[in-house]
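Deliverable D4.2, example record:
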Amino acid sequence: MSNAPFVFQTVSNHGSSHPVVARLLMQTQELLQFTRLDQKDKEDVMIIYGELSRRLVKCYEIADRLFAERDRTVGAFISEIGTGSSRIPYVIGLETEAESFLSVAKQYLQDLVKALNLLLNAQLKIDPAVWWKRRKDGTIDVVKWATKTYGEQHPTTKMFAEEEIWISELVKKRNAAIHQGGECGNLVIKNYKFGKNGIVAPNWRREASANPIPTDIFDDIRASLDNMLTLAEDIVATAVHQDIPQNLFRIDEVPVEQRDEAKPIRLKVVLVDGLLKKLPSARLD
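Output generated by the structure prediction step:
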């Protein structure tokens, strides 16, 4: 295994303590050493993951601004309780920031196809639609490819089938925002408002969709961040898993509470249980 170092540019102003930097850059570099990719392919993977990191950091920054603005307006509302004020919280820039989040997220999902193609030799079209859009026969490109490559019941195939649920809604919301009245409907974003049972939190929905029920915009953004980060990691993990000797190594997930704050990686390759006991001990004569 080659240990030649990769050289990265700084991702915005964030260091190794940021989960995106730790898990998409540092962790990926470490995991790639356990694959059979040649050095050129490893470097190309890191270039792709560098771009993925930049896009996902942008999503995190948008989310941070939205959450900070939410906390500010809710704090102001709470401080005015009892003063006779009838104002309710209002998140400034909610619609603009939400639409920006959706646009960057779609670009991220498109770039992720490049990673899939290089790491797992998928040879799929570089288009976010491969993750979610159903063809006339009801199949989704990435699931169809995984089924042919690994089998219908393989964990990788099942993983991609499950990812379709959140990816499809995320991309459809972006398309509904850009192409109002198109096949994905109209994106409707609502700020805080008075409802029958009190103040209703900001939400969004797609009008003219099969499921137009509003959902909490902050919950959805938080879940999307985690899903996007985890999917990129799991593609690397799949490549590692199929290359490492299963009788020697396994991939472990580090529990959240045990992750190093300075470098909070999630996945690492470790020796299988009991292997060290089987290895001959060194003797000094």
